[in-house]
Amino acid sequence: MHKIVALLLANLAVLTSFSQEKINLYPDGQIPFAKAGTEIPTITVFRPSKNTAKGTAVIVCSGGGYGGRANKVEGIPACTKLTEAGITAFLVDYRVPNDQKMDHKEWVPLTDAQRAIQYVRENARLYKIDGNRIGIMGFSAGGHLVSTVGTQFFETKLQNTKGTSLRPDFMILVYPVISFADSLAHLGSRKNLVGPDITSEEIRKYSSELNVTEQTPPTYITSGMDDKVVDVKNCLYFSAALKQKNVPVELFLYEKGKHGYGVFNKEAQLQWIDDCISWIKREPYKRK
Predict the structure, then answer these.
(1) How many CA atoms lie within 13 A of 216 on its CB side?
(2) Beta bridge partners of 91
(3) What is the pLDDT of residues 165-222, one digit of tens each?
(4) How many C-beta atoms lie closer than 10 Å to residue 154's C-beta?
(5) How far apart are CA 268 and CA 52, in angstroms?
(6) How far apart are CA 105 and CA 93, in angstroms?
(7) Any idea what the Cα angle at residue 74 is, between residues 52 and 94, rounded to 5°?
(8) What distance in Å separates the CA atoms of residue 222 and residue 213, rounded to the nearest whole number?
(9) Is 106 within 8 Å of 157 (Cβ atoms)?
(10) Which backbone phi and psi does 5 adopt, to 5 degrees?
(11) Of 6, 59, 112, 171, which is most buried by a Cβ count within 10 Å?
């Protein structure tokens, strides 16, 4: 009986060791581009236990083709793994593009993700994190969002009176959509974000491999070579573009790893999330 009680208490301790809180991204009610009936974007904080906290933060954006957010498969498990490693995680429920609920839908996910960086950086002391150790992780279309954040941080529609840097210190891209070029694009994501009638200028703007500079953050990329949903060439082109600009990049590819495996690839022994956490702890973003 005593062993059973002890086991239950141990399980309860594990379940309650990582505190969570959900915060409105725009507490003043001034939600950019919002129409009546718009979704309220939020950020959920996953805090590690005090004795394991490393002072590093990762903002997490689930995928879903810019039509939803796969938090149960991607975002929440990723946040859990990060907090277990002592990294504070912030899960962003960014708004998915919808002409009925917002103006300029193509700007909305980026604006919400930039707001998440702004919030975390401005509240670094509150969460006991280093304001220069804030990364961002994205899966699939969330990876496209994150790569856009990392290549276009100099442009924003946010109110940013404090001049807070919107550049993440590092990026983590998981089977990401990168390019909107006809030959590489995940057409569903492209249609949902921009629309069916995309111009050559818009293709260039939203193809992250074409927007890499020397200031693009160091990047960790993972994908399956057999991904039939988002061509692995998205990762290869982005990795090549980063190398051409001397931006540190780590590429972790699976021989087998179909799209959507989240933090655990059932077809592999080694898991990218463990390798990625080791990469984060090596602080590759401290090069400058």
Answers:
(1) 29
(2) 44, 60
(3) 999 999 999 999 999 998 889 999 999 999 999 999 999 999 999 999 999 999 999 9
(4) 9
(5) 28
(6) 15
(7) 95
(8) 21
(9) no
(10) -60, -45
(11) 171
In this structure, the number of other CB atoms found within 10 A of the CB of residue 272 comes to 25
Fold of 19-287: Rossmann fold (3.40.50)
Mean pLDDT of 55-61: 97
Phi, psi of 281 (to 5 degrees): -70, -20
d(CA 50, CA 20): 14
> How far, rounded to the nearest angstrom, does the alpha carbon of residue 141 sit from its chain's CA centroid?
10
Could you tell me whether strands 170-174 and 134-139 are parallel, antiparallel, or unpaired per DSSP bridges? Answer: parallel
Structure tokens at 118: 């702004």
First to last CA, the chain: 57
Q: In this structure, what are the phi and psi dihedrals at residue 188, rounded to the nearest 5 degrees? A: -65, -45
Which carries the bigger pLDDT value, residue 275 or residue 10? Answer: 275
Question: For 5-28, what is each residue's pLDDT tens digit?
Answer: 343 333 334 444 456 899 999 998
Q: Which amino acid is at 46?
A: F
